[in-house]
Amino acid sequence: MSNKRIFRWILYVLGVAIIVLAFWPVPSTQGSVGGKSRGARLGLNAVRNETLGFQKVFAINKPSRVDKRDNIVLGSTVSDFYVEFIDGVVPGNIDPKTYPYNLHIDPKSAQCAARRAHVNVMQRIVHQRLGSAIVFEDDTDWDVTIKTQLQSFALAVRALQKTERARTASSYGDDWDILWIGHCGVDCRHEEPFFLTPNDLTVVPTTHFLPYLRGVPHMRRPENARMACTLNDGVCSNSYAVSQRGAQRILAALSVIPSPLADQIDTGAEFDVVLGRMCGHGYLRCFAPYPSLTGNYRSAGLASKSSDIANMPEDIVEAESHGLMYSTMLNLNRLLNGEPTVHSTWDDVPTLDVDPKDISTPQGGTIQMQGAQGIYAVRFVPW
Predict the structure, then answer these.
(1) What Rg value do the Cα atoms of the chain yield, rounded?
(2) What is the pLDDT of residues 320-362, one digit of tens each?
(3) pTM for the whole thing?
(4) Are residues 182 and 194 in contact, defined by beta-carbon separation less than 8 angstroms?
(5) How many CB atoms lie within 10 A of CB 363?
(6) Taking the domain 38-296+358-381, which CATH number applies?
(7) How far apart are CA 230 and CA 217, in angstroms?
(8) How many helices (H) and strands (E) does the chain have?
(9) Where are the domains of the chain?
(10) Residues whose CB is less than 8 angstroms from the CB of residue 183 and which lie 6 or more positions away in sequence, other chains included
(11) Each residue of 290-319: pLDDT tens digit?
């Protein structure tokens, strides 16, 4: 073979190799949070996908509560995300041999069953090697702009992790264990920065706040601003996201190897109480929005429909949603009919009708610190 033909053959082989490498799929990486690397390439836009920027969306639901499953299925469908169900645990059906040695709530109680259901979610996430998942309890309601809200929250928590412009495996950054998206009270770490997103039209007025059980964070927050902070404590677990790292640590602490953590903090209580303690201890790295991004829904009928844990009266009541400006569940008929507007939850809120398309993502926010002389801005983070 002549030198010229050999040279042409080498160029041909090199050309084919370059084309193959250009189109060869990049191997997925199993990071601590995001799992597959596709989310990194999509950035904040991945939050608008059918799993809200996580790898899966789970909802805990007792099979007997088909009414609540109906709510979640229809609500998530009109909001364009996909939910997988994990069966709730029936009180008294837990094998006594599975109780951790430090459990100090009644093993036959609804609270213990709820705790085990959340541990089952952790088991699923770890078993399926999911980088992250978001978990809803089956009475959760969310704003009609949930994807816009989560995009804004993702920018906030990325900024608090100092990764808002970095390539990460998750749209929410890579250094977190819990994103406590739906709660009934949080305590922020005052020594760490917090993030303020101004002019958020979906922030519930303080006059209509749920009875938050951890008081009001000490940071100054304008009425129409939403805050994101690093958590010292939280309560109520109606929705939260957990990373693979976080799920592994929770599964270890609440079931597999509760010691030595149990010697440092009380991990034998209800799930949300223990979760808050693990955040405060530093065992988990946790972030949350304030006010909460999700609320609770009770459909019309018996008042007792709203809870499988607490004893409720048997009065007949109307459908009700708490903690949201523009409830998805209360606006289902309008959304199904394709109406251009949705109604706010309360008649005394100035804006009664709004087209969800008119509510855009706030254009960034400010990282702030609380010092001895008060609160001061550190830097603005653009969208």
Answers:
(1) 23
(2) 888 999 999 999 999 999 998 899 988 887 666 788 888 888 8
(3) 0.86
(4) no
(5) 12
(6) 3.90.550
(7) 11
(8) 8, 18
(9) 38-296+358-381
(10) 234, 235, 236, 237, 238, 240, 288, 292
(11) 999 999 998 766 666 655 555 556 666 787
